[in-house]
Write a structure and sequence with these properties.
Length: 303
């Protein structure tokens, strides 16, 4: 029976091999990508709206310049009238690349309502926001060498403040620092090689907190936020810490974005679908009010 069994297996292998076909896939399918729009208005600052398209599955890695939504017509309308934003860019010295966006020349005003309209590739997208969030007031900022949450131990800062009475407030932290080319980000340690900044040159970076906090069940109380920092530090480094008060649309979008990121790396976290706040586009148009800054001097070096 063994010769017959081996013969049957050999015949089966021939049949399977005969069924194989070589299929040529043409990655050039005319895919233009979904549009991504992100704009957060801050009172007293010029508007910036980031517009890009998502890359196709077969496209290689691309820079923000290559994905920039060129040719879009971007307008912001408020009580002072309508402004058409112009294409502009800034150079990211940490990643050594240009970051394009659409910029306005009229500072946003606290208490005003604004409408955003984007016309791109024959389609129109719109959203609105009102800058009426209470300005947070930070009581203290302290360094913490280690704190624990469900994702393990971290070092960072503790922000203490009193929540404004009236439920529905949302917060995220911001840290501005001056760093050099040898300072790494915790998510990309030793990966990015900085070859565009001279040795010893300092440049500013802004660390925006991924986590969004709210005042549910703690309305009007004194709160402490434990924040994991993004950049390495050494003893004596200076950092300016802010607290942002976000509108609901922005808070919901960034919270879902953070939860989706956590789900990618943790099989025990339930996947989250990001709900766009700009119609058929992906993204958000919202507003935020910053606190005054608090200076933090790092008392120790990072491990």
């Amino acid at each position: 029976m063994k010769p017959q069994k081996l013969s049957s297996i050999f015949i089966l292998m021939l049949v399977v091999a005969a069924c194989e076909r070589e299929i040529n896939i043409n990655p050039s399918t005319g895919f233009t990508g979904d549009i991504f729009i992100e704009g957060i208005l801050y009172p007293g600052e010029f508007p910036r709206v980031f517009i890009s398209r998502s890359p196709g599955f077969f496209e290689p890695d691309a820079t923000p310049q290559e994905l920039f939504g060129r040719g879009a017509v971007v307008t912001i309308t408020g009580s002072m009238g309508q402004e058409i934003l112009a294409a502009d860019s800034t150079f990211d010295k940490f990643r050594c690349r240009w970051v394009p966006f659409y910029a306005g020349n009229t500072p946003a005003i606290y208490g005003e309502a604004y409408d955003l309209t984007v016309i791109y590739q024959g389609k129109s997208y719109s959203a609105s926001t009102t800058i009426n969030q209470p300005k947070p007031i930070i009581d203290t900022v302290e360094y913490v060498g280690e704190f624990f949450d469900i994702y393990g131990g971290h070092d960072g800062v503790i922000i203490t403040f009193t929540d404004s009475p009236g439920s529905g407030d949302f917060y995220r932290y911001q840290m501005n620092r001056m760093i050099d080319r040898n300072t790494h980000h915790v998510d990309v340690l030793e990966v990015i090689v900085n070859d565009c900044v001279a040795e010893g040159e300092l440049f500013r970076v802004t660390d925006l907190g991924r986590s969004v906090f709210n005042d549910e069940n703690v309305d009007g109380l004194k709160l402490q936020l434990f924040i994991e920092v993004a950049f390495e530090y050494v003893k004596g480094d200076s950092a300016w810490v802010f607290l942002q008060s976000l509108d609901k649309n922005a808070a919901t979008f960034y919270r879902e974005l953070d939860e989706q990121l956590l789900a990618r790396y943790n099989p025990f976290v339930e996947p989250v679908f990001i709900k766009s706040k700009i119609g058929d586009a992906i993204g958000v148009f919202g507003s935020a009010v910053r606190s005054d800054s608090i200076l933090l001097i790092y008392p120790v070096s990072a491990d």
